[in-house]
Amino acid sequence: MGVIVKKVELSWLDRTYVWPVMKGMAITFEHFIKQLFTATSKRYTIQYPEMKKEMPEGYRGLHELKRFEDGAIKCVACFMCQEACPARCISIEAEEFSDLNITQGFEEKRPAIFKIDMLRCIYCGMCEEACPKDAIWLRKDYEVAAYDRLSMQFGKWDLMNTYAKADGKDRISQDPTPTVPRRTIVM
Amino acid sequence: MFITFALITLLGALAMLLQKNVIVAGLCMVATFFGVAGLFVLLGNPVAAALQVIVYTGAIMVLVLFVIMMLNSHEEEKAEASRPVQRWVSLALVAALALGSVKLVLASSGVKALNLNGAALPRATTLQNVGAALFADHLLGFEVVGLLLLAAMIGAVALTKRNL
Amino acid sequence: MDKFASLLHLTPAILWMVIKVVIVFAGVMSLAAIFTWVERRGSAMIQDRIGPNRAALFGKIRIIGLAQILADGIKMFFKEDLIPTDANRKLFWLAPFLAFVPALMGFAIIPFGKSFVSGGVSYHLSVLDPGNGMGMLYPLAIGGMAVYGVLVAAWSSNNKWSILGGMRASAAMVSYEIGMSLAVVSIFMTTGGYDPSEIIGTQGHLPWNWNIVHQPLGFIVFFTCLFAETNRLPFDFAEGESEIVAGFNTEFGSMKYSLMALAEYSHMMTASALIATLYFGGWQVPFVKDPTVMLSVACFLVKLVFFAWVFVWIRWTVPRFRYDQLMHLGWKVMLPMSMGNLVFHAWRMSQGH
After folding, report:
1. With an 8 Å Cβ cutoff, are B57 and C144 in contact?
2. N or C: which end of chain B has fewer CB within 10 A?
3. Is the pLDDT of residue B41 over 60?
């Protein structure tokens, strides 16, 4: 099946080739001038280390382990995320703990070790969906890089502090001993 | 200056003859042309020098090298069986030719006039002089040469392009 | 001047010559180096990009990326100097110089400022003084020599792409030279002389007396041919990254490559100086009858930089030509056009204009 291509009839002015070239030059010059007098912040190019792109809603970046106001980890070490993870990059070790203030004597679980291998993670967000406690979030930080492999193994405290600076929270490195009971158990 | 340019010319020519690689030989010839152009400048004829460079090095040698590259003989050609008799005969002939031409030049009226006038440098030839000489004194020769070149061009086209 | 010359045990004439040579060559070379940056930055701007702006002196002083030139130079200098095993070593060494020297030499004839008289001696601002009998034939001759840089570089590196690029570039250069020379000849005719200072003198200081107004056709031909001559886009057949890697300088690295690149830009400078001299009144300042020397030099520099910029500008406007289109344009359009231009001006002169 043939397609009939309509040939564009050029006017004599266009046939001279000089005039179209001059028109083209006007266009390129317009772009040049426009780009020259545009402020750096308004250009298309994002000058990376100084300027960063605002990621869209729902972007899945670096993980954060959420915490309560007093700094206690929300995670209850239920292993749901570890099960859901298709890349198998999460490894959790649970521990029991009890203290009178928080658990009022009951034994509860929390992760003693919560490790994510960032080299393996594919940022699919399954762990976030699987989590019954909303304890793990994938947020907007995309600058996950390091000089060696070992520092890409994020531990529990690393994960809890990933967004501390962005949110203006304190960095924590140990489980808190709260002074007031967090919740009363309704029996 | 003269010695420099003469040396460039002669060494270039010699290297061209002795060089086995065709392209290098061509480049040596370019050096020779340059030397000749320099000699022209020393003779007070910069126009001839410029034309020498434009026509010979800028066009003809480029085309010659171009053709050599197109045929592309990277292997250096082997010299054919040496023919000592022919070589000596040709050498003798060339020597006789060179001697004769030098003698002719020395006997010419122009050199004698130079001798009479002493070592006064001739005035530099300009393009205007060349044009006037071509179109006033040698008009017929100029036209004939033009016609000859045209005929040669048409002949070359006819030879290479059979079905016009 | 005299005192300074005697201090250096030189005659003033020789000292002046040395000064001129240094000014011209250092000027052209640094302009060429700057234009490597201008080209990258300008092309970026035309394409709505930003271009190299991050190279900084001592990691701090970021003068809109101008330090990029230095950085490039240093990088090139410290790179390994490779020669392919099958290359012709001598010619491979020679090629960058063969490319570089003609590109710089062409500038020698061009007067970059008004001649002035000081202490009864007149000083000319061009390396070759006017009246040398070579005139504008000199840049044409040297321009013809530029082919060898490409040709030798291509052949000596013993590489298919190099040879392809070098061959078609040299063919293009040779064929465009004819149209260019004819366009220049018609300027010789209307000027009645072929010395650049004469050409500039007859053009005068009024822009409507410049050759561009009298010979627009000749200008178009000359300008187009210069693009082919300098191997710039839209006629960059020597390189043609999209089809033959990098053409004639595929095998060249480190300082050899940078010499090749510098040669291209020096060639561009010489070409734009030629355009300014032949068609835009050289150092003549528009509407100023008797400019001071510095003003004339500045005006020439402005013209030079502008035309060099036009080379960059055209590069991002016009798409590349195919090889047969190039040959078609050269032989069937440019040559008849410049021939017609020549005949037309001969006719006009015979009518007594």
Report:
1. yes
2. C
3. yes
| Same domain assignment for residues A103 and A38 | no
CA distance C202 to C194: 11
Q: Are C47 and A31 a contacting pair at CB < 8 A? A: yes
Token pair for A162: 């990933």
Note the pLDDT of residue A11.
82
Query: Which of A21, A29, A45 is nearest residue C50 as measured by Cβ atoms?
Result: A45
Whether residues C314 and A25 touch (CB distance < 8 A) is answered with yes
Q: Do A78 and A112 have their domain in common? A: yes
* A161 and A105 in a common domain: yes
CB contact under 8 A, A43 and C48: yes
Q: What is the ipTM of this complex?
A: 0.75
C135 contact B CB<8A? yes
Mean predicted lDDT score pLDDT of chain C: 83
> Cis peptide leading into C234, omega within 30 of 0?
yes
**According to the model, what pLDDT value does residue C207 have?**
81
How far is Cα C264 from Cα C271, in angstroms, rounded to an integer? 10
pLDDT the model gives residue B145: 92
Domain that holds residue A80: 63-167
In chain C, which residue's Cα lies nearest the Cα of A16? C333
- B67/chain C closest Cα distance in angstroms: 10
Residues of A in contact with C45 (CB under 8 A): 31-32, 35-36
Segment among A18-22, A175-179, B117-121, C16-20 with least mean pLDDT: B117-121
CA dihedral C31, C34, C38, C39 (to 10 degrees): 80
Tokens of B113: 């006039």
What percent of chain C clears pLDDT 90, i.e. is strictly above it? 1
pLDDT number for residue A91: 92
Clarify whether residues A113 and A26 are in a common domain.
no
Please check whether residue C237 is in contact with residue C192, taking contact to mean a CB–CB distance below 8 angstroms.
no
Contacts of C181 in chain B (CB under 8 A): 54
Q: Are B49 and B41 in contact (CB under 8 A)?
A: yes
What CATH number is given to the structural domain containing A129? 3.30.70.3270
Please give the tally of structural domains in chain A. 2
Residues above pLDDT 70, as percent of chain C: 98
Average pLDDT over residues A174-187: 57
**Residue that has been written with the tokens 């040579």 in this structure:** C21
Contact C46 A35 (CB under 8 A): yes
User: Chain A: nearest CA to C49, how far in angstroms?
Assistant: 7
Residue-level pLDDT at A187: 46
B–C contact (≥3 CB pairs within 8 Å)?
yes
Asked if A82 and A118 sit in the same domain, the reply is yes
| Distance from C-alpha of C97 to C-alpha of C165, rounded to nearest angstrom | 19
Please check the confidence at residue B144 and state whether its pLDDT lies above 90.
yes
Residue A120 maps to a domain:
yes
B in contact with A (at least 3 C-beta pairs within 8 A): no
Neighbours of A147 (CB within 10 A): 7
